[in-house]
Amino acid sequence: MFRTHTCGELRIGNAGQAVTLAGWVQRNREMGGLTFIDLRDRYGITQLVFNMEINSDLCRDARELGREFVIRVRGKVAERFNKNPKIPTGEIEILVEELIVLNPSKIPPFTIEDHTDGGEELRMKYRYLDLRRNENRKNLFLRHQMAIETRNYLNFKDFIEIETPYLIKSTPEGARDFVVPSRMNEGQFYALPQSPQTFKQLLMIAGYDRYYQIVRCFRDEDLRADRQPEFTQIDCEMAFVTRDDVLNTFEGLAKHLFISVLNVEVSDFPRMPYQEAMKLYGSDKPDIRFGMTLHELNHLLQNKGFKIFDDAGLVVGIKAEGCGDYSRKQLEELTDFVKRPQVGATGLAYIKYTTDGAIKSSVDKFYTPENLKLVLDEMGAKPADLILILAGNTDKIRSAMGDLRLEMGKRLDLINPVEFKPLWVIDFPLLEWDEETRRFYAKHHPFTSPKPEDISLLETDPDAVRANAYDLVINGTEIGGGSIRIHNKELQQKMFRVLGFTEEEATNQFGFLMNAFEYGAPPHGGIAFGFDRWVTLFGGGDSIRDFIAFPKNNAGRDVMIDSPSVISEEQLKELGISPSTK
Amino acid sequence: MFRTHTCGELRIGNAGQAVTLAGWVQRNREMGGLTFIDLRDRYGITQLVFNMEINSDLCRDARELGREFVIRVRGKVAERFNKNPKIPTGEIEILVEELIVLNPSKIPPFTIEDHTDGGEELRMKYRYLDLRRNENRKNLFLRHQMAIETRNYLNFKDFIEIETPYLIKSTPEGARDFVVPSRMNEGQFYALPQSPQTFKQLLMIAGYDRYYQIVRCFRDEDLRADRQPEFTQIDCEMAFVTRDDVLNTFEGLAKHLFISVLNVEVSDFPRMPYQEAMKLYGSDKPDIRFGMTLHELNHLLQNKGFKIFDDAGLVVGIKAEGCGDYSRKQLEELTDFVKRPQVGATGLAYIKYTTDGAIKSSVDKFYTPENLKLVLDEMGAKPADLILILAGNTDKIRSAMGDLRLEMGKRLDLINPVEFKPLWVIDFPLLEWDEETRRFYAKHHPFTSPKPEDISLLETDPDAVRANAYDLVINGTEIGGGSIRIHNKELQQKMFRVLGFTEEEATNQFGFLMNAFEYGAPPHGGIAFGFDRWVTLFGGGDSIRDFIAFPKNNAGRDVMIDSPSVISEEQLKELGISPSTK
User: Fold this and answer.
1) What is the count of structural domains for chain A?
2) Minimal Cα–Cα distance from A408 to chain B, Å?
3) Considering only CA atoms, which of B169, B151, B394, B365 is closest in space to residue A149?
4) Among A521, A520, A503, which residue's Cα sits nearest to residue A511?
C-alpha cells in the first residue's frame, strides 16, 4: 500500500495519527533548521516538516527534493503552529519520519502553477504536465460532473444510452468525412460519423422511444480557432413527440445542469422565432443578457435624398445609452470596427443626442433636425444617448449590426459574465441557397421536417419554407440544435429532390433509411448538444481546448504524440492504397 | 402531444379514464363483432378493442391495420372481461373512440416475435426491425444498466471519466491499426486507438489518480466468429497502487455489477497463478464451476516401455466420474474430439474402472493391472469412473486436455449455467517467444511491469520473467485484464530492447511516454474490461453481436448501411491517396 490517506484528507482530528502519504513536491523551502514541503496530489496539498535537529540525514535528503519529484513519506500528523485557513488541510502538518523517492523529476519546462510561464505550444507538447495545473484539473472535473448530471437526468427520464457504430458510411452531404480504408474490402472505405443522426433515427423506428449517447463525432473541416476535428455531442432522440415535447424535455436538462452543477436557477427559456432573432438582434444566436435591440429606420430615413440610405434594403439603428457625448475618436473606433472584414459594413452613421440636448449627426446635411428628432423619439433616446446606424443589404447589415451591438454591450459593460440567459430560437428556414453552386442546401440536415403548414411550399417557394427546427442558445453561444424529423418516405424523397440529389444518389446513400420509413416509422425528433462548448460556457472559458484532455492544435495535430504521422510502406500495401502522385 | 400514457402503464386503477396511446400493431384479431389489437411500444403491450355494433366504420378501419402499423388511438380504459395475468396491463383494455394511422407498414420480412423466422443475414439487413424483438431490447437495456452501474461504482470510488482522443498515432506493436488519412497533412495518417493505453498512463502522470472511460476501441484483425472491428472497453487506471489495490478495487466493481444487475452474490474471487491454472485446468481462463482438474501422470506412466508416453513432455489425465462403463462408440467420439485441429491431440488413452470393478484400458498391453490401479488410486477413482489420458508436448497437451475437460463438463452436465464463479489469474509470463519471427513479444503489452523480483532475469532469462499482470475470468471467459505498468524510463527502454525495438523505433513511437516518465511519473496500474463480452456473459448469450445495437458481420461489413463502400474520386484526390496498383 502506497498511502493511508490522500493529500487532501487530513484534519485536526487526525492529530497524533501515524500516516503514509504519496504525491508530488509542489514547493520546498527552508526556514532555519526546518524544511517544509508542500506535497500535492489530485485531492489537495499537505505540508510536510523535516527537522534538522531531530533527524539531520532525513532533513538533508528532503532539501534535495526538486519540484515535481514523486515521493512517499511516513510520519505523524501534528497541529500546525501557523495555520493556513486557505486550504482544508491547513490546520495540520506531517512530522516526517521516513522519506522514499518514488520517481525523481527533471525541471519542468514551465511552472506548474495557476499562472504558468509556459506558452500554449509548449504546454501542449507537455500536456501531461499542463494537466497538473489546477485550472485544467478543475475543467476536467467540471466536464466529468456535467456528464454525470446529464446521464442522471436522462436516465431518470427513461432515456436509454445506446452505442452507435464509429465505422460507418461516407456521405457527401454536409462537412467532409474522415475515412478509414478497409483492408478486408479493398478499395472500400468506412467513414467516421459526423453525428449518429441516421442511427438514432433507426433506433426510433426500432421502438426505443428515448435514446441518448454522449458520443464522439468527427468533421474534417479546415480548422478555425476553437474547432476540433473530433468533438463530443450529447446526442438525443425521442419518438411520438411534438416540438414542444422536445423543448420541454431538454429545457429540463439544461435547468438540471444549471442547478446541479452551477447552483444557478434560471427562468423558463423564451422561444424566439428565427426571423425575430435576426430582426431584433441581428443574429440567430442572440445574447439576450442585455437589450439594445435593432430598430428598423427605413420609414424615417429613406426617400429624403440620401442615396446610400435610399438604396439600402435596410436602414437600422441601435441606441447606446449614455454615449451621446462620444468623441470623434470614439466614433472613429466604432467605424473601424464595423469596417472589419469579419463585420463587413462600409460605414457607420450616428445621431448624437448630447447631454445638453443638442442633436449632432454624421448625416445632418441630408436630414432636418426634425427628421433626426423623429428617430430619437421613436427609439426613446434621451439626452446623452447615441444612435448608431448601418444601411445596406438586409441580411448583411443585420448581421453587422448584431456584431456592433455585441461590441457596444462589451464597451458599456452591459454583459454580466456570471449571468445566464438561455433561449430557444425556433422556426429556422429549412433551406439555404448557395450562389456559388446554385443549389439549395439543408440549413440543418436533410432529415429535418418542414413545418407541416409549409410543406406545400417545398416545390413552389422553397426559400419560404420554415423548418420544425430549434437551437438552444445561451449567452450568445449556440449550445445545441435539433428538429422534428421527416418520418415519411415520400416527403424524404421530395426533400432529396429539392436538395438536388438524383434518385440514384439518394438511394445509394440513404436507401436504408428510406426503406426503414416503410416499416412503421413513428413521428420523432431530437437534438444534439455540443458538449465541449457547453462545458466551456459553464466553466467560463474562452477556448474548448482548455476543456478537452488531449486536444489538437489548429492544424489538427496532436503535438504531444506527434500525430498524424507517416505509416509504413507495409501498412499502405496491406490497405491497398498509396499516396497519389500529383 | 401524441399520447397521455405509454403501452406499459395503465392498470385497473385507471379504469374509466380517457387516454391517448400510440404504438405499433403487434397483433390484430377478430372475435365475432369485436376486433382486438395488441398495441406495442418499448414499455409494454395494451389491448385495444373495437366494437362493430358501437362504431362499425371505426371497427372496419381497425380490421385493415396490418402488423407494425404505427397508430394513435383515443379511448376509455375499461376493466377486461378475460384478464391476462401474464402482462402488467392485463387487467384492462381500451375501448377505442378514435383511430389515426401515423404510418403504415409493409409486411416485415420476418416476424417480430421472440422466436423469429428470420435468418441472421436478413435480420442484420433490417436491423431496425430485428431490434424491435423483445430479446434484443432486453439485451440493450441490460447493456445500458451495466454501464450505469459501472459508472455509479467508479464515480463513488473517486474515479473520473476522462475522454481520450480517437484520432491518435499508429504504432506497429500489437494488432493492426485502422488508419485515417489526414487531408491537412498530406501523406500522413491518424490511427484509431486499439485502447487508450498510453493516454491513461499519461493521465496518471498528470496526477488524475483514478481514471476510467467506457470507450470504443478498434482492431483491424482478420475477423473470427465473435470478433468485432470496433468494440467497447471499460478502461481504468489508478496511481499509487499495488497489484492487490487494483484487484480489490475491481473485484468490488464486479461484485457491485453482480448484485445490482443480476441480484447475485458472489464470494471473494480466488487468485490463481498462471502456472497453476495451466497445470490444473489446461487454460489461462479456467472455468472453475466444476472440478475434474488435470492430474500429471508422468511418474506413474513413463519408463514402462510405452514409447508414446515415454517420449512425451507430459502425460496427463482427468477423471470423468460415472463414465466407467462408456461404450467403444462413446470413447471414439471423445477420440475424435481431441483429434480436431482446434484441439490438436493425436490420440486419447483411457482407463475404464467399470461398475463391477474391472479395469480396462486402451494401453493395457504396456501396463500391468497394478500399474493401472496405481493411477486409479492416485486419482481417487472409484468403480464406474473413467480416466482419460493425453500425452505429448507439455503446452499443447495441457491445452488439449483443458478442452477435453470442458467437453466432459458439458457432456456430464457439470456446468451450472446460472452459477457464476469468477477468479483472478495472476503472474502471467511477461514475454512470449515467437518461432516464426524469432523474437519475443509482450504477452500483454510493452508497458506491463515485470514482477520486481524477476526484473534481474529480463536480459538473462526472459522466458522466466513473470509479469505483474492479471486477468479477470468468469466461467471460462476472460472478461478483463491489466497490469502494474512500468513507470521508469530505464526499465521501459530495457523492455523495448528485449522486444527488439531499435532505440530510434522506441523513441519515434513512444518517446512522448518515456519523456513523461522523467517528470515525476507515479507508480500506477490498471485494467480494461471487454464490455461487450461482459454484457453477453451477464445476458446468458452466445454472441456479442446480440448485445451490440449495430454490429458488423464476420467480414467486417455493416450489411444494413452497406459499409464499407467506395468513395468518390474527388474525396480520394483531396486526401492525396489512390488505390494502389498491384
Assistant:
1) 3
2) 38
3) B151
4) A503
Q: Closest residue of A to B179, CA-based? A: A180
Nearest to B577 among A22, A185, A579 (CB): A579
Which pLDDT score is estimated for A582? 47
| Closest chain B residue by Cα to residue A130 | B206
Strands (E), B195-303: 210-218, 230-239, 271-273, 295-296
Q: Residue A319 sits in which domain range?
A: 290-411
Q: Please tell me what DSSP assigns to residue B399.
A: H
pLDDT given at position B227: 85
Closest-CA distance, B505 to chain A, in angstroms, reads 12
The answer to whether A334 faces chain B, any CB pair under 8 Å, is no
Taking the model in full, what pTM does it have? 0.96
A209 has a chain B CB within 8 A of its CB: yes
User: B411, B431, B460 — which closes off a domain?
Assistant: B411
Q: Is the pLDDT of residue B172 over 80?
A: no
| Of B465, B455, B474, B469, nearest in space to B253 by CA | B474
Among candidates A40, A519, A560 on the partner chain, residue whose Cβ is nearest the Cβ of B129: A519
CB A167 to CB B160 under 8 A?
A: no
Please give the distance of CA B334 from its chain centroid, rounded to a whole number. Answer: 28
Query: Do residues B295 and B389 share a domain?
Result: yes
Condensed to tens digits (0 to 9), the pLDDT of residues B229-264 reads 999 999 999 999 999 999 999 999 999 999 999 999
Kindly indicate the confidence band of residue B581, based on its pLDDT and cuts at 50, 70 and 90.
low
Specify the CATH number for the domain of residue B381: 3.30.1360.30
The answer on B322 and B222 residing in a single domain is: no
Please write down the HEC assignment for all residues of A300-368: HHCCCCCHHHHHCCEEEEEEECCCCCCCHHHHHHHHHHHHCCCCCCCCCEEEEECCCCCEEECCCCCCC
The secondary structure element, H or E, covering residue B72 is: strand B70-79
CB contacts, 8 Å: B229 with chain A = 167
With cell 452466445, the residue in question is B542
Domain membership flag for residue A193: yes
A232 closest CB neighbour out of B163, B183, B488: B163
All three cell numbers of A246: 422536445
Please give the pLDDT value at position B393: 96
Q: What is the DSSP string of A414-440?
A: ---TT---EEEEE--BSEEEETTTTEE
> Among the residues of B422-529, which ranges form H helices?
489-498, 503-516
* A99/A152 same-domain check: no
Extended strands (E) in A119-208: 160-161, 179-181, 189-191
pLDDT number for residue A160: 98
Interface contacts (A, B; CB < 8 Å): 343
Question: What span, in angstroms and rounded, lies between the C-alpha atoms of A476 and A277?
Answer: 11
CA distances from B556 to A182, B123, B150, B233, B541 (A): 9, 16, 29, 19, 21
Instruction: Please report the residues numbered 144 through 173 in chain B whose beta carbons come closer than 8 angstroms to any beta carbon of chain A.
Output: 144, 147-148, 151, 155, 160-170, 172
CA dihedral defined by A131, A132, A134, A138, rounded to 10 degrees? Answer: 50
Question: How many residues are recorded in chain B?
Answer: 582
B238 touches chain A (CB under 8 A): no
Torsion of CA B195, B198, B200, B202, to 10 degrees: -170
- Domain end, chosen from B393, B411, B429, is at B411
List Cβ<8 Å contacts ≥24 apart for B79-83: B79/B12, B79/B15, B80/B47
Contact A565 B245 (CB under 8 A): no
Average pLDDT over residues A329-342: 96
Average pLDDT over residues B413-420: 94
* B499-546 pLDDT per residue, tens: 988 999 899 889 999 999 999 999 999 999 999 999 999 999 999 999
Are residues B2 and B18 in contact, defined by beta-carbon separation less than 8 angstroms?
A: no
Residue of B nearest to A40 (CA): B207
